[in-house]
Amino acid sequence: MKNRNYVPFITNSEVKIRIKDIAKEINKEYKHKIPVFIGVLNGAFIFMADLIREIKCDCEIDFYKLSSYGDKKISSGEITSLKQLDCDISGRDVIVVEDIIDSGLSIKYIKDDIKSRNPATLKIAALLYKEGVAKLDFDIDYIGFKIPNEFVIGYGLDYAQKYRNLKGIFVLKEV
Ligand code: IMP
Ligand code: MG
Question: What is the mean pLDDT of the chain?
């Protein structure tokens, strides 16, 4: 058997259960609204797909594409916008869907950008949140799992563009 350089961390069924919990909260809160879910590519595409299929109210979607990592495990600290929003979000109820919050630089950039477009409300859903890393002066409204400061892959998350197809979430061992 091939020697794997990653170890199991969160199973696909654990992720699905947690997503149902988050969706339940969102369904309650946005019952009479039509939120716009904004996924952050590439990492959040699977989380976004699973989350919105648990949403009961009418909703719309759009995507940002940012890049800050290149092929490294540590953020370059520089955010590049590779795709901006297509829809007009002024006056809309926006929910940003992120795969993971690490240094917090990406989510800060996104929050500032969205705020400048005058949405009615803005909330953030992150599947994973690395504890004790980001210093944010705002809350993350929906968090799937708080995790230690490890590099994780799978369920949409990559290392050097690979491993996004793994069903569960794994910790990458030293490469
Ligand atoms: P931040 O700007 O440092 O918070 O990082 C945000 C982005 O970097 C996330 O949306 C991910 O796409 C990527 N990222 C951060 N940590 C990890 C990780 O452990 N595995 C895979 N991607 C990560
Ligand atoms: Mg991301």
Answer: 93
Residue of 81, 103, 106, 162 with the most ligand 1 atoms within 8 Å of its CB, for mutation = 106
Judge whether 93 counts as a catalytic residue: no
Residue 1: predicted pLDDT: 44
Residue 129 near residue 139, CB atoms below 8 Å:
no
Residue 152 in contact with ligand 1 by CB distance below 6 A: yes
Q: Is 170 in the pocket of ligand 1 (CB under 6 A)?
A: no
- 105 CA distance to ligand 2 middle (Å): 11
Cα separation, 81 vs 106, in Å, equals: 10
pTM over 0.85: yes
Report whether 79 contacts 109 (CB < 8 A): yes
